[in-house]
Specification:
With 292 residues, this protein is an all-alpha fold. It has a single domain, classed as MetI-like (MetI-like fold, Orthogonal Bundle), CATH 1.10.3720. A two-stranded antiparallel sheet has the order 1-2. The protein is flat, with a radius of gyration of 24 Å.
Length: 292
């Protein structure tokens, strides 16, 4: 019996409407708000149309571009470390060993903690007087550091917090991908004399390259949107050394009360995230090119 054409639309329609309401409406609102001068606490009827002035003000502000550079650097360092550590942990814990369930649970826990709690925890850990990091440095014979007061050390601190929280995501993705590999291929590689390194880099990882690609792009997209941990940990300081683009948008909107300018800057972030999403779809599609 042939299914009517309207049946798929009937099932997909509600989901499409929900996605449109949840995703498209905020985007359209951002485009609208970017053309107005409006502050919170005032009626929308008092909003003043300024056209492209908000765009010009946003893109001529050096702090916007410096925060974008900080975001790019933050994303590159964090995601690179998370990918290396996550893949390494997945390879190390791929085979069943005693206590594997306990290890996997411990690795997943950081990802399940609320970002605000993560920020508060690491803020106490990096405290200059009572923090755990400085206590360990003193035990090792090194001098205590003002982690959150030094621009370079503060950047390292937010990187450590992000890597600690999101390496488990890479680990989960990779352990699931490795578990689904065809064991006959691995057995053939062993019979052909391939050692562990050759099996890993010439057989295993190429077979899960699409999972690696989508995991990489998902982490890059999330790195551009991170806010809560850095908000609690450094609030973008000292100075603007740890002020990523999402945090700058927050400050512009809710501290500076320039919602139109903040909406204009958010469109820049939207463009970056869309490009990364497009890259994820291009790299992670295992069927591309097969229909040619």
């Amino acid at each position: 019996m042939k299914t009517s054409r309207w049946v798929p639309a009937l099932f997909l329609g509600p989901a499409i409407l929900v996605m449109a309401a949840a995703c498209l409406y905020p985007v359209v609102s951002a485009f609208q708000l970017a053309g107005y001068d409006w502050s919170l606490g005032t009626p929308w009827s008092s909003a003043r149309w300024v056209g492209w002035d908000n765009m010009v003000s946003a893109f001529s502000n050096p702090r916007v571009w410096s925060s974008l550079v900080t975001t790019l650097l933050f994303a590159a360092v964090c995601v690179s470390a998370e990918m290396v550590l996550g893949i390494a942990l997945a390879l190390a814990l791929e085979k069943p060993v005693r206590g594997m369930a306990v290890f996997r649970t411990l690795f997943i826990l950081p990802m399940m903690i609320a970002p605000i709690a993560v920020g508060l925890t690491w803020r106490y850990i990096f405290d200059a007087q009572f923090g755990l990091i400085n206590a360990l440095l003193k035990l090792a014979g090194f001098s205590a550091q003002t982690w959150l007061a030094d621009p370079q050390l503060a950047f390292i601190a937010i990187v450590i917090a992000d890597v600690w929280q999101w390496t488990p995501f890479v680990f989960i993705m990779m352990i699931a991908a490795l578990a689904g590999l065809d064991h006959s291929v691995m057995e053939a590689a062993r019979i052909d004399g391939a050692n562990w390194w050759q099996q890993t880099f010439w057989v295993k990882l190429p077979m899960v390259i699409h999972v690696i690609a989508i995991t990489l792009m998902m982490r890059l997209i999330d790195a551009f949107r991170v806010l809560e941990v850095i908000y609690v940990l450094t609030f973008g300081g000292p100075g603007d050394s740890t002020e990523i683009l999402a945090l700058h948008i927050y400050k512009t909107a809710f501290v500076g009360q320039q919602l139109g300018v903040a909406a204009a800057i958010s469109l820049l972030l939207l463009v970056v995230v869309v490009l990364l999403s497009w890259g994820a779809l291009r790299l992670s599609n295992p069927l591309k090119g097969e229909d040619r």
